[in-house]
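In the design runs reported in the main text, the only information available to the sequence generator was the tokenized backbone. The following block is the verbatim input for one such run; it is reproduced so that readers can re-run the procedure and compare outputs position by position.
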């Protein structure tokens, strides 16, 4: 078993295998609660009005908080020692969460109509205190101590805001007013993060669970192996493609490393890749899944909500940078294989492509259905339900005897992943609410612009470092939400494209997954590979270095996120593609059509790649000139070696 508890930044989702006694004990509660929650979500999304019933939006959010927090306390232990059994206090916490969520759902109309978000009667206030404490404990269990402490500081901040110096000064609230604003206001616990999860993300969690339970992970692995397994360095390419495909749909970096890495890392090692290199490849490929459409985890949907644009806008903007990142990974592992003489897998070890498609076509159709409904029908809310329903229907027709087992597994998977997200994002709502009610969020944004002195590049560097540091202590979604409030307005005030600015924040917030000292994805991959954590993390940082460069490239040149004229976009795609190829070859010391690169040509090739990424005509010409010079040098040296032989 891989140890994923080394860092507090990304608490792993609990084990769902049959031997996990905690989930086995609670499945009879988790399954019906999750089924009821999904029925409630479907009732809202499709406007079914079952039995004439439909909750108001705020009541809907409270109901789901109560249900999934009850699941959270039954599936996420208070202590590691509780992982194999459910103590009495967790049953009590689950019951209180369910009761308080139902209570606030029933009085949601009074909360709005009577202004209880400012001052409420004693009964709602006591219930708010109970829910507030439960949310903090749920956050600690899912997000870890670092995120818990950050949110706790912001939770008490409004009480002392008038005592803070400088830009931290804000409107002061009494403890009771703070509690009412957090729990019964529309901008905190039931603010944008929880709203997005409730109205959009739960459907995609259901889709991911259906994909997993019906064998989608194995299909993508076999599909990638059949396509690329025989190629030079094939196992590494299979890892990149399969992890990218599966990760783009699951949205979870750590679980992606564990599920796909258990197969890909040993296969890469057998092919000749060193253990630390194999672990780094898997870590980078799984991390990239959180920026690859169509799902992109919860952060993509939250971004669309913050920007008030259709999710398809975020998807279309994110697709090219994600493709460039995966192209860089593929080019690097290919160059490494070429330089070290590594081959692909034997033909007899590879699955047959036609057989793979015959058995796995429902997964392919399900994914294409999801993408089509999002991009062309703009059915972001209902698309995952149709796709999940299609895959489950085919799986049941093929194995009717497994119907109950499949439904039970899908409900458990959806329940636990939803509980995890609610635990994180309801806690993050405390940060959002604190910055909103005190007015500090807008003040900090103005001060950032002032401190940078209208220097765009200084502001970008400051924003990148801030995102990276916060990403060490927060999940990618939590980091994005916080910085979208603080840093997003500052970037857009400088005239930067608003979508590019928010993607910039998202990219830098998730870089900590592959960058020491945290490098959580690399740590998990190192455990599977049997290599050192630091060595694997440093190699992952180098393999994924394009992720450090791309955000600056597309925020300064929005054509790289397909925002601009057709010719401008095509030109940017061409130069960026060549740039990524050159940077990848420079890192590995091998240039296609030339061969191994000595130190000086290697540096020149890297400089040519960086020049082509800068959106200026003269830098493009410089990059192309350097490329021609290196290729000319390589061809001359090849002829000399041939003549000498």
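Verbatim output:
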């Amino acid at each position: 078993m891989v140890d994923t508890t080394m860092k507090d930044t990304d608490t792993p989702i609990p084990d769902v295998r049959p031997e996990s006694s905690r989930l086995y004990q609670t499945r009879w509660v988790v399954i019906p609660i999750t089924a009821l929650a999904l029925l409630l979500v479907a009732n809202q999304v499709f406007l079914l009005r079952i039995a004439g019933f439909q909750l108001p939006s705020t009541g809907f959010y409270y109901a789901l908080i109560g249900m999934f927090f009850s699941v959270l306390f039954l599936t996420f232990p208070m202590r590691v020692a509780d992982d194999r059994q459910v103590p009495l206090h967790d049953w009590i916490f689950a019951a209180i969460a369910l009761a308080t969520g139902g209570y606030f759902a029933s009085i949601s109309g009074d909360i709005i109509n009577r202004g209880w978000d400012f001052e409420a009667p004693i009964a709602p206030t006591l219930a708010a205190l109970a829910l507030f404490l439960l949310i903090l404990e749920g956050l600690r269990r899912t997000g870890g101590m670092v995120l818990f402490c950050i949110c706790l500081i912001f939770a008490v901040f409004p009480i002392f805001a008038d005592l803070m110096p400088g830009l931290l000064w804000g409107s002061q609230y009494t403890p009771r007013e703070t509690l009412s604003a957090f729990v019964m206001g529309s901008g905190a616990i039931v603010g944008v993060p929880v709203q997005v999860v409730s109205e959009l993300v739960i459907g995609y969690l259901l889709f991911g669970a259906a994909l997993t339970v019906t064998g989608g992970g194995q299909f993508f692995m076999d599909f990638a192996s059949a396509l690329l397994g025989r190629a030079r360095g094939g196992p590494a390419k299979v890892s990149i493609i399969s992890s990218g495909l599966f990760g783009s749909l699951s949205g979870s970096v750590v679980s992606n490393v564990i599920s796909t890495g258990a197969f890909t890392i040993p296969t890469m090692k057998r092919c000749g890749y060193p253990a630390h290199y194999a672990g780094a490849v898997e870590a980078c490929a799984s991390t990239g899944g959180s920026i690859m459409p169509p799902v992109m985890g919860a952060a993509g949907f939250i971004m669309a909500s913050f920007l008030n644009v259709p999710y398809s806008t975020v998807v279309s903007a994110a697709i090219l940078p994600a493709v460039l990142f995966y192209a860089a990974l593929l080019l690097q592992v290919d160059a490494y294989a070429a330089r070290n003489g590594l081959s692909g897998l034997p033909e007899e070890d590879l699955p047959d492509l036609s057989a793979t498609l015959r058995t796995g076509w429902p997964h392919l159709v399900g994914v294409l259905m999801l993408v089509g409904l999002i991009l062309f029908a703009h059915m972001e809310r209902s698309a995952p339900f149709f796709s999940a329903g299609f895959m489950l229907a085919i799986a049941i027709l093929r194995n009717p005897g497994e119907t109950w087992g499949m439904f039970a597994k899908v409900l458990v998977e959806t329940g636990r992943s939803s509980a995890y997200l609610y635990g994180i994002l309801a806690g993050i709502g405390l940060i959002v609410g604190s910055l909103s009610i005190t007015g500090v969020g807008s003040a900090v944004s103005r001060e950032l612009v002032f401190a940078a002195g209208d220097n765009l590049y200084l502001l970008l560097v400051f924003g990148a470092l801030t995102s990276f540091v916060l990403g060490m202590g927060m999940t990618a979604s939590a980091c994005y939400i916080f910085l979208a409030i603080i840093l997003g307005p500052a970037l857009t005030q400088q005239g930067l494209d608003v979508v590019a600015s928010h993607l910039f924040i998202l990219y830098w917030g998730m870089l900590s997954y592959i960058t020491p000292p945290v490098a959580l994805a690399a740590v998990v991959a190192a455990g599977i590979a049997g290599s050192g954590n630091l060595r694997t993390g440093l190699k992952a940082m180098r393999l994924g270095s394009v992720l450090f460069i791309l955000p600056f490239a597309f925020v300064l040149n929005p054509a790289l996120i397909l925002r601009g004229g057709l010719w401008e976009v095509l030109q940017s795609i061409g130069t960026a593609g060549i740039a990524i190829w050159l940077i990848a070859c420079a890192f590995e010391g091998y240039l296609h059509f030339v061969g191994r690169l000595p130190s000086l040509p290697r540096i020149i090739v890297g400089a040519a790649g960086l020049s082509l990424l800068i959106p200026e005509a003269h830098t493009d010409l410089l990059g192309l000139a350097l490329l021609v010079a290196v290729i000319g040098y390589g061809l001359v040296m090849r002829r000399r070696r041939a003549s000498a032989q």
